[in-house]
Amino acid sequence: MTDVDALAKLRDDFRMQNKSVFILGASGETGGVLLKEILEQNLFSRVTLIGRRKLNLEGEAYQNVKQEVVDFEKLDDYTSAFQGHDVGFCCLGTTRKKAGAEGFIRVDRDYVLKSAELAKAGGCKHFNLLSSKGADKSSNFLYLQIKGEVEAKVEELNFDRYSIFRPGVLLCDRQESRPGEWFVRKFFGSLPESWASGHSVPVITVVRAMLNNTVKPSDKKMELLENKVIHELGKASDTLKP
């Protein structure tokens, strides 16, 4: 059996389990691509988006997607939104430039941790966290420090399975214009693939790595997937039709 055949079988077996999933941060680039890929692969029997606003999802593909609108400052009032999901994906995040230092900490650490707590209490078995290459709670850089802190705090919740994804620079076409990121994408795009792949990764590759990892049975309580592994896992399905 080839790797492609093995992955196809894993997906088929996973679909038969009729699992439910929620996505935090579906309004962002990675979350949006994740939602699209989940629906195309038809991996889950129920898909729920949890966010601060309702998204305008047009098309038949989205007709069975449930949206839960919550106030992240009062998440204890929305415990029902986090109940009854087998798998959760957290793609929440902002930037210090956009939200300020306090706003960044509130979103990337406090909102994420509280959401994870409610997901665990609501029965979530497998929690997937989108983090960052270089995340380290001891880092002198605020961004990497907060990413490292939330990784550690979520681990303390003791999910049955906890997967942390640490991609490098995300290569994508953002809806929100960020000139600095455009320059970075062009920079990495001009470098030899072997070097660029160690420090950057396309969003679609991250998303496919997340899903390919999810359908693979694992006896590990915690998985730390660095950029190189994300590339390997994500590219495994490049030629596979769902």
What can be said about this structure in brief?
With 242 residues, this protein is α/β, with parallel strands linked by helices.
Describe the protein's architecture and organization:
By secondary structure, this protein is of the alpha/beta class. It has one domain: Rossmann fold, CATH 3.40.50. It contains eight helices and nine strands. A seven-stranded parallel sheet has the order 3-2-1-4-5-6-9, sandwiched between helices. Strands 7-8 form a two-stranded parallel sheet. α2 (29-41) links the parallel β1 and β2. The longest helix is centred in the middle third of the chain and has 26 residues, at 96-121.
Radius of gyration: 17 Å
Q: What class do helices, strands and sheet pairing give?
A: alpha/beta
Q: What's the level 1 CATH class? A: Alpha Beta
Considering the protein shown, what is the CATH homologous superfamily?
A: NAD(P)-binding Rossmann-like Domain
CATH topology title: Rossmann fold
Characteristic terms for this protein:
Rossmann fold, 242 residues, two-stranded parallel sheet, 44% helix, 8 helices
